[in-house]
Amino acid sequence: MSSPTQGRGPKRANGEREAEILGVLQRADGALTPGEVAERLEGELAYSSVVTILTRMYAKNLLTRTQRGRAYAYAPVTDEPGFAARRMRSVLEERPDREAVLARFADGLSSADAELLRQLLGPDQNP
Fold first, then answer.
1. Beta strand 71-76 with 63-68: parallel, antiparallel or unpaired?
2. 71 DSSP β-pair partners
């Protein structure tokens, strides 16, 4: 009896596939079409799967897209540090007590990271 995933490689969670595709897009010199993404994945995903994942990522505002011929070309809306900052902001916005979350975050920082944060906030950022 054959398995439903036979010939398609190991089954991965959608988040892993999104991260893999995002990595391909971040390493590219510009926006890529689904065919170009599929090619860079070296056949790990079918073209239709790449289109589906790119469309979902675009709907989540992770990607921009522009018309290129009959297809769209996709690019990340930000770089890796920008995505990390977006995730941090998202977690903060989901919590009702922002002060407590920020306090716990600051308490967990190393002294070097705390100093870096102070520098980034700068003297004119303190009320």
1. antiparallel
2. 68
Tokens of 108: 């967990």
List the structure tokens of 12: 């991965």
Residue 94, judged by CB atoms within 10 A of its CB (0-12, 13-18, 19+), counts as exposed
Gap between the Cα atoms of 38 and 45, Å rounded? 6
Q: Of 90, 98, 50, 96, whose CA–CA distance to 74 is shortest? A: 50
Measured between alpha carbons, how far is 78 from 90 in angstroms, rounded to an integer?
A: 15
pLDDT digits (tens, 9 = 90+) for 71-119: 999 999 998 899 889 889 999 999 999 999 999 999 999 999 999 999 9
Do 74 and 54 meet the contact criterion of CB atoms below 8 Å apart?
yes
Closest CA to 72 of 85, 54, 87: 54
Q: What is the pTM of this model?
A: 0.69
Give how far Cα 121 sits from Cα of 12, 46, 60, 97, Å: 40, 46, 29, 21
Calpha distance 22→100 (Å, rounded)? 32
